[in-house]
Write a structure and sequence with these properties.
By secondary structure, the chain is of the alpha/beta class. It has 10 helices and 4 strands. The longest helix has 19 residues.
């Protein structure tokens, strides 16, 4: 494993985008891409629910679903994973696979961002992966009203409002606990929609932007990308 870890040493900046599903993580990850961050090669395509893209790496999503499956869980399970689940022997190969995915998707890149809401409940596993890779990520947590999230999930997945509120609570509790001792910052989704470039600039100490950031054309592209008309629940 040390050989793989040596391959993936990164002198740049790592941002892990966290948040409950439908909380604006895709929009934020998309702005990072415009700002010069690499999100990997194999990205999930856009669809009617995220017309500008999810910016999630398919290989990472597949691995996260596999890990959840070991515990008869999925991203929308309303129960917590078993105590010390991250030490399960079945995850030893998953850790090797995770390192290989990171190497394949991001090796040699200066600034990378990884976004999958499943990280919120699987961070204990991924933190051990990052440690093996000698990564020191900055964790960005997107915050959005649970009512807005519930309405969005009701439309997309036909979840009850009660289920969505439970999921929101579980995700935020897990994220807060897993990142408590880490370098983290919080982005309010409503404020981000109003001024996306300012949101990046106000948290610039967590990023590694070029001195010229943002160029006028980049700022225009970000403002056009984060279009409030795609916010269907307010």
């Amino acid at each position: 494993m040390s050989k793989n870890a040596d391959m993936a040493k990164n002198k740049g900046n790592i941002v892990i985008v966290l948040g409950m599903h439908r909380s604006g993580t895709s929009a934020f990850a998309g702005t990072l891409k415009i700002a010069g961050y690499d999100l990997g090669k194999d990205l999930m395509p856009a669809n009617e629910y995220n017309v500008k893209g999810y910016f999630e790496n398919n290989k990472i999503v597949e691995l996260n679903d596999k890990i959840l499956g070991y515990f008869n869980a999925s991203w929308d399970s309303m129960f917590f994973l078993p105590e010390k689940w991250e030490k399960d022997e079945r995850l030893r190969q998953c850790k090797i696979d995770a390192i290989q995915i990171i190497n394949s998707e991001f090796n040699g890149k200066d600034n990378i961002a990884i976004k999958d809401p499943r990280f919120g409940i699987l961070l204990p596993f991924w933190k051990s992966v990052f440690e093996s890779l000698q990564f020191k990520p900055n964790y960005c947590v997107l915050l959005r009203s649970p009512t807005e999230i519930s309405l969005s999930l009701e439309n997309r997945d036909h979840f009850s409002i009660q289920k969505s509120h439970i999921l929101w609570t579980n995700y935020l509790m897990a994220i807060e606990l897993s990142t408590r001792a880490e370098k983290r910052f919080f982005i309010d989704y409503t404020d981000f929609l109003k001024a996306p470039t300012e949101a990046l600039k106000s948290h610039s100490k967590y990023f590694k932007f070029k001195d010229s950031f943002p160029l006028p054309e980049m700022e225009t592209e970000i403002e056009e990308f984060v279009d409030s008309k795609y916010r269907h629940y307010n």
